[in-house]
Amino acid sequence: MAVYFDHRIETPDRSNLPSHLTWHATLPILAVASSSPASGGSVDLYLQQGECVKSCHVDRAQPAAALRWHPVKPVLVLGWESGEVVLLTHPSGDQTVLPAVHTARITLLEWSGSGSRLVTGDQNGALAVWKLDARGRLLGNHLVKHDYNKPLTCCIFKPASPGVDVAMLARASVSGDESALDMFSWKGAPLKMGPQEGLGFYVSTADGKVHAVDEQGRTSPLLSEDGSIRKLFYLDKRGVLVVVTDTLMLSQYTLRPEGGAHESMKVKLSSTAGQNVDISWTENSLLITATGEPVVKIWDLERDENYVLSLDETLGFKKGEMINCVSYCAAKEILAAGTSKGRIAMWKTATQPMSSSSSYRADAKALWKLQTPTEIHGNVTQLQWGSNQNLLAANNSRTVLILSEHVMSAHFGQQVAAVQLAPTQLSITNFSSGETLPLQCDMHVRGVCLSKDSVTVWNGKHISVYELSGTALHVTGSFPCDSPIVAVHDENLYTVEPSRVQIRTPQGTVKQLLTFSRAEGNPVLLDVCQSYLAVGTDTAHIRVYDLSRRDAKAHCGAKNLSDHISGLGALRSIKCNASGSQVSLLTSQVNGRPDHKVYFYDIEMDTVTHFDFFTGRPSSGVSVPDESDKQKFQENEISGRFPVSQYWDESEPRLFVCETAPIASEKSANAFSDLEDVSVVTLFCTQEHGLLLQDCFSRPSGLQALLALDVPYYYFTCKLLFRGDGVFLPEPGEQNPEVSPPDQPIRAAPASTPLMASRRPLRDFVGLEKCEKGTRDAMLNFSFYLSVGDMDEAFKSIKLIKSKAVWENMARMCVKTRRLDVARMCLGNMGNARAAKAVKEAEAEPEPEAQVAMLAIQLGMLEDAEKLYKSCHRYDLLNAFYQASSEWQRALETAEAHDRIHLRTTYYNYAKYLESMGHKNLALAYYEKSDTHRVEVPRMLQDDTASLELYVTKAKDKNIYKWWAQYLESQSNMETALLFYERAQDYLSLVRVHCYLGNIPEASQIANNTGDRAASYHLARHYEGHDDIKQAVHFYTRAQAYNNAIRLCKENGLDDQLMNLALLSNPEDMMEAACHYEEKGKHLDRAVALYHKAGYVSKALELAFATEQFAALQLIAEELNENSDPALLARCSDFFVQHSQYEKAVELLAAAKKYPQAVELCLTHNLTITEGLAERMTVTDAKDLTEEAGKALLEKIADCCMSQGSYHLATKVYTQAGNKHRAMKALLKSGDTDKIAFFANVSRQKELFIMAANYFQSLDWRKNPKNLKRIIEFYTKGKAPDLLGGFYEACAQVEIDDYQNYEKALDALMEAFKCLSKAKDGSSGQQEVRLADLQHKIVLIKKFVHIRRLHPEDPDEAVRLCEALLEEPELDPAVRIGDAYGFLIDHHCQQGRLQTAYQKLEELQKLLPSQSIRFYISQASLDALQKEMGFPLESGDHKHVLREDDEVEEDLTV
User: Fold this and answer.
1) CA-wise closest residue to 415 among 390, 451, 443
2) Kindly report the CA angle at 201 between 200 and 204, in degrees rounded to 5?
3) Angle in degrees, CA 413, 418, 423, rounded to 5
4) How far apart are CA 581 and CA 603, in angstroms?
5) Residues 587-601: what's their mean pLDDT?
6) pTM higher than 0.70, yes or no?
7) In this structure, how many other beta carbons lie within 10 angstroms of the beta carbon of residue 642?
């Protein structure tokens, strides 16, 4: 626990009253403005202990109105009532008066983020912006001045824009990012590195307006509020401006990028508003207000929730005490509040667990824990945390006090404990005598140390030694000494100064010096244990001295721990064991965070080992192979933590203890005493076995910190509740049954001296606290060897012990160590047969923890048992444990959350418990939850008929109604029984009772209306007993008791009803009814139908054939299938053939597997074979037909399908028969081109490829390029180059005849020539002739193509060559004569030689008298000839002649 030392400021003029105070952001300098009517106003600067900096005194005739520190430099800006603004520099005291801009009271002073700009504003609305250099010196006159004509109230600078991450930019540049390279380029804009300073700001006025001022100083209105604005805040995460007015109206505005603001929320903070409202804003978006009420109100703007923190009178606050001011320290997460009674309340934020945001919302208020208050008297009006986290300035209306936080000092030695209560007060507790003494010192105590008969206290500048004599304390020595730490051994005091340790007498005389070299550093840590002194230095060196002689002697040389500990920053704590053989160390890392390890330096072996609390494992030690489960449990229990404090046992050198806290609490490392969830871990440390875990437990809630270890006790300091008036009382909770009081009852002491130290026995010594030394040593050895796993040595150490208490204590140890084998032996020596039996039975459980939990239960260690059951997740056993412990609420919670399989059982058992306790109403509710109320509640209330009837009436449960009706019926209360039977909808009982009462019509109506089968059956039996057969049959039918109804119909000749009843009943009843009809020889059609319905088809057919019931026979035959008797199927098929029902006959023949006959019947009578019928007739079993016969049958079926036009089905059947050739023919007839192509590709047979290609050639392949490609592809795959060549020839001819495209024709002929060249000559030289003819055509076409291409370049040569070409023999059909003449005619017409053109036209008409010349000559040439020569056009010839411009592009090659 921390206390706060209060330092009153050393003000030059005590008559002045403080009005303003402010800390520098980074330096421990406090500025205080004060005033008095006589002297005016002044401003002074003070250091952290209240020392006044005399060089920095400023005074004026009027009071100071505002103070504001430069964010970085020690420069303070002062604003006065007169409008004067002064810059004050620390420590020189230089004063710089700003040019006179303001003429009224200064109301506004604000620095920019890095201090390069200063904004000043006054009561008249004048605002000025000033520029300062890097040293905080003013640069010239003001940059900007605005006049708003209203008093200025607040100013806030806009947040800085994020800068460029240079490291990431460099990596991106190296990886080749051009944009990143451009940013580094000198051509671009200057690169902004790091966060930039925002120079724009917002300023508010008293009339509720907020103005935005940009970086150039231009001002513009932003928003307006009702009332004067008190505070402005900026919520950076959401880009929201928060405005609080004098009326405590909070508004949130979303700032638009283009300017302007949109109001997103408005809420009233408090109904209490006035001048004494104090508002604080935190970085995590908390708005904290103090409005002169007994509460602090907190608004979480990020999560949109609010709550209040109240004062607690049990902590020392008074009723009616009001909170005036608040201040929040983000680094320490502490909220301080000043009250009207001179107290400072502090709420510390507890470490938030890793949980969901919803749970955070639910527990936000619970995270704030109210601490013990600090009293400074007066009326606290102002509070502010300093740059140093341990400094808090408070204004109590008369003066200013600087509160410095200090962890309470405590020490233990030789059964005496000293604990600090207040800055100048200690409590001394002697556990041997039971005395508690107060010690009031004349200085602020920063440390205390106890020896045999003395108490030594110091404050870093002075040391006082008090002697303990009976119940009194008196000073034996007091002297100045600038030592921050002191150690005491016997009559010697050990103090430190640079490079040495001084050994002094209680009066301060130096007896001996222990010097340290420069490399070894300065001593900063001291520890004395028995007769050994351990010293730690600021360079991480340690030394140990032997103090058993007159002079201290070096026990070992200086050890540099940096050589053994990587990343060592500094030593935090050093402790030596009782034998001087081991030194334990707590260290901090280079980054300042506490190390997770405790280090042990073995002096004799000169080695350093450690125990890592992050992993829960030591660096060395013996591990027992069969204890892996136990070790895992222990590692999980102590892992993820870091050590806080450490101690060795006062006399046992092997026993070490330390406190550990979760790693999440590392940020609170400067205040370890306030940590929560602290565990106490005890280790054995030896050379032979290393580090062994002995015990681990959580520190009890009422205890503050571990103080010492002295077997058989741990010693702790207690938490305090400050109750005021100088009375301090311990916090409730430390008087735990596990915490032992002193050996003697505490003698009456002053009310202000509480018992501040408590002790708790070690796990191994519970019940043995007052044992003799021999038993104590034996128990320690037993615990040690048990930890090692050496059972032989463990038993040897206790074999002479006969006390049952000792054996019981060792059995308790076995619960912690999970050694059931040792526990059985202990139980045997205790003679506890019941516990031994229970442990034996628990061995059936698979989890070791569950077995150990049973041992804990038998020993009364219920908390351990609960913890073990939870650790192994045996919630069923935990539930049973809670039930056995009568902790029913926890049992119910466990069942509902984790053991739902036993939830109803738990409800039932709890109800039984409540019933046994007489709580019947509550038991009734849990019987209902367990769903056993239908039986248990009537049983429970059977002696209380009135309550039972009331419960039944309210229950609205049919089962309970029925039970109650049965009860009433047994009491002959038939009318009420009928009422409850009706509510229960128990129609059987209603009918039964009505029949009993003779109300047969009522019973019949109930049975008919409800249709209840049981009721109908009961009524039918009643009618049958009274020979009312008709009604009996009716109700038997409604009850679906058809066999009884059929029986009555047969017995009474009701044949008409018999048929319907038989059809409704089962096959056996149908068979019986059919036999009845057959025996009687009447209604044989009904017999056939019933036989058929019952599944006796053969019998039905025989009877139908015998009686010639053709209608019934046809009905039966329709249900026959392949599973029916083949002979029966054949007989039926013959019947259908005889009656010309051929389709049904075919179906039956197929079902009878007479496929040839079925196919023949289809062919004979031209019946369509469907795909389903064809599938059924496909032979799949070799037993039916041979392979050849099966193929023949399939071909016959396919032939039939072909004749019917079912080409696809025929293809399928032909394929199944293996005749792909005929299958392709069938498919070709279908005309399905896609399936033809698919089948050809799948079959991969040459003939099929050729057939497919021939088919596609028969189609209009000229308009379908897909078919053209298929033709080429299939001829190629069919290896028919001659056919492919012929196809190319045909293509060429088409290009010539239809399109006059000789170029494509030439390409086609070339391909044809290639194909024919590959073909084999099997026709006696015909192929050579064909190739020669093809070559001749190619030559002629090449010439004509050449002529056409030459014509644009050399027309005359082209004409000459064309006329020569006409002289070639056999020119046509390679080159049509008409095309050659047409070329010449077009040429002459183009040249204007129409006479020559006309002559060529006449020659063409003579050569081709029967053909139209329009096929060859262009329309333009014909028009020219008609116009000039009078050439007549042929009538009726309008066919368009395609020329080269009208070509149709086709790809003839693949």
Assistant:
1) 451
2) 155
3) 145
4) 5
5) 91
6) no
7) 22
